[in-house]
Amino acid sequence: MMVTAVAAGVAALALGRVATAGLDRRVERRAAPVGRFVTVGERSIHVVDRPGTRDLVPIVFLHGASGNLRDPLIAFGDAFPEHRRIFLDRPGHGWSDRAGAADATPTAQAAIVAGVLDALGIDRAVVVGHSWGAAVATAFAVDHAERTAGLVCLAPATHPWPGGVDVWHGLVTRPVIGPAIATYVIPLAGRALFDRMLTSVFAPCPVPSDLREAAGFDMVLRPAEFVANSQDMIALKPDLERRAHRYGEIAAPTLIVQGDGDTVVWPSIHAEALERQIVGARLVTLGGVGHMPHHGARAETIAAIEDLLARVEG
To answer: Measured between alpha carbons, how far is 218 from 223 in angstroms, rounded to an integer?
Structure first.
């Protein structure tokens, strides 16, 4: 009986992995690479590099947690056409490689962004980060000040907050049990709950009907990427605790955009505190908008960034 039960369990796991692997392959086909790859250390980083019509400062776009470069590319791909625009998958997300948990902190990822700029022959850039990506953008502005022509933070996660992170992040990063959960549970349970999650992230704005597939959001449910995303979430708060007091060093023109309905990253803890620390920072608060201002109030967000770019260009 014991042998039969074990065999049945092994067979069920194997069938479950076949099913989830099939789902992963379908997601990857729909969200195939749209750019090229540059090498940063031992990593291959997926980059979309769009030329500008004028010789102006380039713009780098950094996506948030549970995302990839398709998200900002959809929002900003046809905006700011005079500027060279760089969209990249952060390490471990989308189609970019990752050198393990060492790449989990915003500080480490800011250094990788600098490596991408080196590979592309870019000295200075305006860095635009959304949510978790704004933590990378602010780390870049602190640690690579001479390369920061301007800073844009959209619904930013920039300061330590009360409490911790979702229990799933801790579970999937544990030895043995973590890979099993990421492989057999997350791909199925996550897909079942994904629409509900997107609704909460976008609220009070509606979720664009085709965005989930167009942005390849389901890529994060692949086991390795889910683990990478969880490592990022766990590493975020300690990294912010070490760096948040240094934001006053940022001298680059800075724009902060927040929605007054954001319940994912509280503006009072993050965006408003960041404005107080950076001299001359401009804070734009969008009424009736949640955690995705680049979709929920795209035109207003683009207009605010255009104003920042005008300041940068002088």
So the answer is: 11
